[in-house]
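Hello Y.,

Per our agreement to keep a running log of every chain we model this quarter, I'm adding this entry. I've kept the format consistent with earlier entries: sequence first, then predicted structure.
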Amino acid sequence: MMLNILEADYSNRQHAADVQYLTNAYAESEMGGGHTLSQEELDKMIAGLRGMSTAFTLLAYSDEAPVGIANCFICFSTFEGQKLINIHDLAVIKEMRGKGIGEKLLEAVQKKARKMNCCKLTLEVRTDNRAINLYERFGFETDDPRIWFMTKEFY
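Predicted structure for the entry above:
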């Protein structure tokens, strides 16, 4: 399998379509919530990412077919006084899981973080997500099991 990872250009129609396709495939999976994103949501996502100077997406291609994605945001650690990268979405299409694509995406994010002099990578993961094994192998750990990731949605 020939794997190619590149940073998406949200203004490139093919890249934008691949970001939409892969993010929607993730949303449709159990770990992503199990729902299809509407075309309006997909279009808003690309427009929003394009407008966020701290956003970047890495796309993984196998033989020119989009197979994996890492949607990331550059943030700031107040305690460390340095930038960090939060991996907001990391997903591989179902048919291609178990082939090392997730690990290659993590390696690419880490390479970018080191180049930017970031102090760390962060991500959130459901406790029933089998990808926890990948994250732990890659060196991610839970700092404190008492810490919850909480959300408050506005509609």
